[in-house]
Write a structure and sequence with these properties.
single chain; 6 helices; about 45% helix; about 20% strand
Length: about 160
């Protein structure tokens, strides 16, 4: 059972109330958000699919993120998170999609993009795609990933409440 079980249950219930299917597009979390949701019996009524797009090639092939976006902004950016969420929405039956891309560490960080930096995208049919930036500083890889899952589920809930 996921440590995010209560949040995941709330997301599923809120999506069900709104009649929305959900898709995820994950990089640094490697499918952990989809797993948290699908740990719950009955989640198939809401979860359409999850894309695990760890490499840039996967982001381009599976989600339609352009090479130009990746070259100009990098995989860990608002622009890539936005494109990932929009791509998941366009390539699924979902009405709502969430993306996550970040630097879980322990290596790979820089002054501009430190370890713990995570970008989230939330796309919904007929509404503006939004992005959110979080830095989970001073945390190990597992903590960054677990916090990213919790934040992602909270962002979905916040979107569904508006």
């Amino acid at each position: 059972m996921s440590p995010h079980n209560a949040l995941a249950e709330a997301v599923l219930a809120a999506c069900k109330r709104r009649g929305l299917m959900l898709a995820t597009a994950e990089s640094c979390t490697g499918g952990m958000i989809a797993a948290a949701l699908t740990d719950i019996a009955g989640s198939s009524a809401v979860v359409d699919r999850g894309f695990v797009t760890y490499s840039n090639e996967a982001k381009m092939e599976m989600l339609g993120v352009t090479g130009a976006t990746l070259a100009a902004h990098g995989a860990v950016s608002a622009e890539t998170a936005r494109a990932m969420a929009a791509g998941a929405l366009a390539r699924s039956r979902a009405g709502l999609a969430l993306s996550v891309t970040g630097i879980a560490g322990p290596g790979g960080g820089s002054a501009e993009k430190p370890v713990g930096l995570v970008w989230f995208g939330v796309a919904e049919k007929g509404r503006e795609t939004e992005t959110h930036r979080k830095i989970f500083a001073g945390q190990d890889r597992d903590a960054v990933r677990q916090n990213a899952v919790g934040t992602a589920l909270e962002l979905i809930l916040a979107r569904l409440r508006r």
